[in-house]
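Whether sequence alone determines local backbone shape is best considered at the level of individual chains. We regard such an encoding as a compact summary of how the chain folds. The sequence in question and its structure tokens are set out directly beneath this paragraph.
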Amino acid sequence: MKLSIGGKVYEAEPVDVIETYRPWADFHLSDGSLLRIHVFIQSVFRIKNEYDNEGNPIYHVATKTFPAVESPEDLKKSEDNLNKK
């Protein structure tokens, strides 16, 4: 299969993900909020005849990210204004 990345075309082959553990990545922000990111892998391709500096094959990974936020009460919209925009 041909895969176009950054204007260059590579030969690639799909690689199945056979085991998945998908934890959330937590980031504490300076305003007191907790930003939680969950990454879902859509597809993985190994680029043929392309390797990193350590000799490992290069993979192209298509992902979706799902963010969630937990903020302190003083940053949240008041309950009276929840339905207003």
